[in-house]
Sequence to fold (706 residues):
Amino acid sequence: MANKIARRLSKATKTKRTKRKPADDEPAVVEWGQSAAAVATPARRVTRQSGMTNKTLYQSVIVNGVEYARGQAVMVKSNSDEPYYAIIFKLWENEQGVKQIVARWLLRASEMFAKQKVDAHAQELFYSNADDLITPDMITGPLKVVSFKEFTGDKESRFCRRFFEEHSAQVGDVDWQKLYVEKQLLDEQTDERLFTSGSHKTRKASGRKGEKRQRAEVSDDDSGPSDSGEEGDDYEDDEPVTPAKVPRTPRASRTPAKAARTPARAVRTPAKAARTPRAVRTPAKTSKTPAKRQRLQDVQLVMQRRAARRQDTDISGLTIYEAARSRLHVSAVPDSLPCREDEFSEIYSHLHAALEERTSMCMYISGVPGTGKTATVLEVMRALQESAGSGELPEFQFVELNGMKMTEPAQAYAQLWQAITGERATAKHAAQLLERHFSTPSPRRHTYVVLVDELDLLVTKSQSIMYNFFDWPHRPHARLIVVAIANTMDLPERMLHHKVSSRLGLTRINFQPYAHQQLMAIVQSRLNGCLAFDADAVELCARKISAVSGDARRALDVCRRAVELVELQWRHDGQPADMPLVTMMVIDRAVKEMYASGVVSFIQNASVQQKVFLVALRAAIRKAGVPEVALGDVAFVHRQLCQMHQLQAPSYDQVARLCAQLGAARCVLAESSIMDVHQQVRLAVGDDDITVALRPDPLFAKIATS
Fold:
């Protein structure tokens, strides 16, 4: 009995010791002050929510016994020893009980992304229109900010006399006494009046959010404006109208007598409109918001710049053959790509809207090789950088990552961290630093646009790299735009887990292979002013390439080889004055020469089982969506093809020998360290070579299409 009592006492003392925490680990005690109102307001874009969210607004918040009111300057916790400075702009609590603060940053001169260097005092702060969401426990204490006249040099105080407009990166003077002491900064019209310089006006006042805020002030409803992106006046027309609602509709109010005489017709007419909503929504589509109209004007202006940028290169002093070869070279990427205007406009619109509204997003671009995916995105980025340089868009940083240039997928962390901060770090440490960077608010952050090319090479077993890259844009403070490019359209559904593909979002753009009309336009745009081809020769080249792959690079290679053949014959004839042109016969010869390489000849002379193995390997790669597959998967597809076409199915050992034979001929690359079903295999030849080599054989033409 005594032992039981002793054990109980020891357990009680142990629990008391474990419950006590050090003072540093205790969370901040947060209490709300006086409640302002409980209203339904549109969710901010940074919260990644859509629709209406019921929020309770407050006038102040109490953190660790200290009360902080709206419009008060505070110090905010940072990752370094120096705190951030901000002004409490709004305080609210949503239905889930989450307490959030809209903080407006007070920037140091080193934290601004100004176009020109700004000379400032060490204790001078700049009032900005950069807002961010913080939690109450991030407030570390009050901050004394005075005007320049009242500043006495006190080390604990700061002064403000200028503002910084984040959109245009402009600096101007401000009366801090009226703005801060008299609380004019809490007036929503102050932003529109203050952050206006010359002809530039902040897009926030005229954009989508500004228009919704103006409509919310005019409307007497507590439900707030619609979040559908269309006009609020047309929202009620989408619902069927009952007899009690007929007098409220505009049509019934214009003809009250007719509605009273024929109530049945008044009831049926809205029902017909409900069955054909397209006719009802026509006014909403034609009447675009100012932000949409401005965005369309920006796209049209950029398209005009693209057309004006297409200038002919100087070919003086060169023969027509030399000029044609220089223009048709694959490395000579033009400033503007023809036949991709629709894709350019769509990508530009998405990225322009995200940069303008300072939000994050993910975009997935797919298409077969040679369709201009990377070149179009780079052209869009050049246009956006020009807009940012002229003050039309906020400043942003563009980072380009390519999976082909990395020895391992984890290097993407180190390259991204080095591009953002200029500091070197290991992949594991860089991943931790990036996680903390995109998860904490900071006034120094501008938008990052990250292009991840060859995305399929970053696929790992755990898929943690792709998950992090697609999850960071969903953080409230990230301001990260990820543009991923891959060759497979359904790569997220084939290879990625659901949690990764869900982070990718619905913004997907697919680049279709070029048709022969588009290939003709591409070649003719390169040869503009260079009369080295017959019109029929260019058309023949475009039709032959579009029938195989639709690869623009292959079409340029064929035309360039045709020019080399004609030039060689012209020099052999003694360079006569009458220079021959590239004809259809020369194009046909160039195509046969290009596709009649040693690889094509080897595939044509290979055994039946070797040809089936190549077709099976290509099918397995296309199904997996990655360039490497296991030998066991290839053997399974190989046996299926043989059974479908009445061929003798080989054993696994025979399939392994076929792989070794093709590997010795450099048609297949196989992993040498593993010699079982898990051996990784990939093609060392192009799909076009396999298609051209097997097309004359009717059996393999049927297998290739099965």
Q: What stands out?
A: The two ends are 82 Å apart (CA to CA). The first strand starts at residue 30 and ends at 32.
